[in-house]
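Subject: design request, 633 residues
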């Protein structure tokens, strides 16, 4: 016999991993008002376990034995203040128990715990409200939780027990005490949560939160009663749309996403023809915690004829990773490995179909409900923009979705179509400025000449912007052009009325000064020249005419991609009072040193405006001190 029947073996005490202990601390002391969600989490785990075994049984049908009908059973025991959730799914081995219930494996829960680190208790409450937190939420309502389980196909059975206070115990179970297969989670409800053993209450919660689960759910009102079916286990995605309410979709989304918000977009369709599949996709109403996880993993569940193959199928491009998706295919092969399923050409066709549909629905939403769409863009725009760079084929459609902050619409929401509609006469390009901070961008001296001509400029502050904008060919026949690149061809655009105009003429004195600057700054700059883009500032830095955008260069250099930053061009506003004063001082030979200092200071000032540092901080400080002393002297 195996160790399982040896009930004399002592229970072993284990200590929770530090993160679990913190999470439990929070759950045990939770005053979170919507505690009902614990039941949804336990039912979801039971359903997951059934789906896991359903998959395993494809290769090993003997695992199911006589009992091929999966079900979840919820057993109320009001007299003893107990609630049990039981399934005939995969069950857990001893190792599984330690791994699954003693540590935090799940990525969502992990980032939840990371957030806890800096969140106060109050905020932690609202975090529970926003994110599914799995098994441990049972400790919101129970002061003791017992898990009895047997892994399908194994003799050994185990009891896991904890009061949620830092340690748990695992002991072997006698065969008669354990479920024949699967897991029984018994909650010993705490004083404040006794009503969760009342059948009417449980039925209500299950119907509300777990109606779309793909395994049937039975309710037992008091121990010994006949089970009564309260949810039919028909997968939501396979039901006709007309039979599904918005609330049912929303509940299903919450269970799928582990989030508690309303989906911003729901797309449910059935593909017919070459590939047959059901698909149900949601765009979340709030940002998932791991949106910018470098792994860029999506969250697509793939079923083949109702059998869950994997819950992280690569069914969406990285730039749609925020979409929650279920696909149930009629055509993919069942009895091959997960990896092979994903290499099938059918899989690739489904991926294309799903991607096209989601993008098309987003475009529709943007056209028909601009306000609802604005929120989607606010949450996920930075991710969608990755597609502009990665997926040239989709670029035109993504341009319909993109919204921007511009000099004329500093709060964002501006589409390229609207930008192009409002082009100034003789304006031939779409102008942009990239940087780290949208507010600082708006104050950049480089924009002065554009403002003077009333030309709108896109303010691009997401890191990905510098990439797509440098590869995109244009929109509506207009190229994208950085305002830092060369002498922007805006001369033929008329000045706006009453605008502060850039100096357009350079007199001989200014030209001499500029030549002296160039000589003084030498190798530090590619060129010094008079500017026609500055109206109120004395100087700014731009990229050489045919060089790459300055910010893109910096990002590449930081990423160690070998690219060296090319030298900028210093542009001087010949009409600026400082420049005219310097030009006349230059005529006096004894003032040369001061004018040279000014050249360096103007260069460093322009660097600072771009968010860079002076090349030599000590020299910068010395010059500044000299010039200030002179000014006061
Ligand atoms: P998640 O379900 O997101 O993985 P949970 O905290 O809800 O996170 O559950 C943790 C793990 O515990 C699960 O991944 C699973 O391995 C295991 N588990 C929980 N409940 C069951 C169950 N009823 N049957 C089998 N395994 C379970
Ligand atoms: Mg779970």
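Subject: RE: design request

Done. Sequence follows.
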């Amino acid at each position: 016999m195996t160790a399982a029947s040896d009930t004399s073996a002592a229970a072993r005490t284990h200590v929770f991993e530090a993160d679990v202990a913190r999470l439990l601390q929070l759950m045990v002391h939770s005053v979170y008002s919507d505690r009902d969600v614990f039941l949804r989490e336990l039912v979801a785990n039971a359903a997951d376990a059934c789906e896991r075994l359903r998959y395993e049984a494809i290769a090993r049908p003997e695992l199911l034995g006589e009992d091929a009908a999966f079900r979840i059973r919820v057993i109320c025991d009001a007299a003893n203040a107990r609630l049990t959730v039981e399934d005939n799914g995969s069950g857990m081995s001893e190792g599984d128990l330690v791994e699954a219930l003693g540590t935090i494996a799940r990525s969502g829960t992990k980032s939840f715990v990371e957030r806890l680190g800096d969140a106060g208790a109050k905020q932690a409450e609202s975090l529970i409200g926003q994110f599914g937190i799995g098994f441990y939420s049972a400790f919101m309502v129970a002061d003791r939780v017992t898990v009895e389980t047997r892994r399908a196909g194994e003799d050994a059975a185990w009891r896991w027990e904890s009061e949620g206070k830092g340690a748990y115990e695992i002991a072997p179970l006698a065969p008669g005490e354990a479920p024949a297969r699967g897991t029984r989670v018994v909650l010993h409800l705490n004083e404040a949560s006794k009503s969760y053993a009342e059948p009417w209450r449980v039925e209500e919660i299950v119907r509300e939160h777990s109606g779309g689960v793909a395994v049937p759910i039975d309710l037992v009102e008091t121990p010994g009663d006949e089970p009564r079916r309260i949810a039919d286990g028909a997968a939501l995605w396979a039901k006709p749309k007309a039979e599904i309410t918005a609330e049912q979709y929303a509940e299903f989304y919450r269970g799928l996403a582990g989030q508690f918000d309303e989906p911003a977009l729901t797309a449910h369709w059935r593909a017919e023809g070459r590939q047959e599949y059901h698909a149900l996709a949601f765009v979340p109403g709030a940002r998932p915690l791991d949106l910018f996880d470098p792994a860029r993993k999506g969250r697509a569940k793939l079923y083949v004829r109702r059998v869950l193959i994997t819950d992280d199928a690569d069914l969406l491009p990285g730039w749609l990773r925020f979409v929650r998706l279920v696909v149930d295919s009629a055509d993919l092969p069942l009895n091959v490995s997960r990896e092979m399923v994903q290499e099938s050409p059918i899989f690739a066709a489904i991926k294309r179909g799903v991607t096209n549909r989601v993008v098309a629905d987003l475009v529709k939403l943007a056209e028909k409900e601009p306000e609802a769409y604005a929120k989607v863009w606010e949450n996920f725009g930075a991710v969608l923009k990755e597609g502009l760079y990665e997926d040239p084929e989709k670029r035109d459609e993504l341009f319909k979705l993109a919204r921007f902050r511009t000099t004329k619409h500093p709060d964002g929401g501006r589409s390229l179509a609207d930008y192009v509609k409002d082009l100034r006469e003789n304006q031939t390009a779409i102008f942009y400025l990239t940087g780290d901070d949208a507010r600082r961008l708006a104050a950049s001296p480089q924009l002065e000449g554009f403002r003077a001509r009333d030309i709108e400029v896109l303010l691009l502050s997401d890191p990905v912007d510098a990439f797509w904008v440098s590869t995109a060919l244009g929109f509506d026949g207009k190229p994208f052009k950085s305002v830092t690149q060369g002498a922007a061809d805006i001369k033929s655009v008329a000045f706006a009325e009453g605008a502060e105009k850039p100096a357009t003429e350079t007199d001989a004195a200014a030209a001499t000064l500029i030549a002296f600057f160039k000589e003084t700054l030498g190798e530090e700059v590619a060129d010094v020249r008079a500017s026609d883009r500055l109206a109120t500032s004395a100087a700014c830095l731009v990229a050489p005419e045919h060089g790459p955008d300055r910010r893109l260069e910096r990002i590449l250099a930081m990423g160690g991609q070998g690219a060296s930053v090319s030298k900028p061009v210093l542009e001087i506003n010949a009409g600026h009072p400082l420049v005219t004063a310097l030009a006349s001082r230059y005529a006096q030979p004894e003032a040369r040193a001061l004018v040279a200092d000014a050249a360096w200071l103007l260069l460093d000032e322009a660097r600072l405006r771009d968010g860079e540092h002076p090349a030599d901080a000590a020299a910068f400080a010395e010059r500044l001190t000299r010039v200030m002393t002179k000014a006061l002297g």
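The two ends are 99 Å apart (CA to CA).
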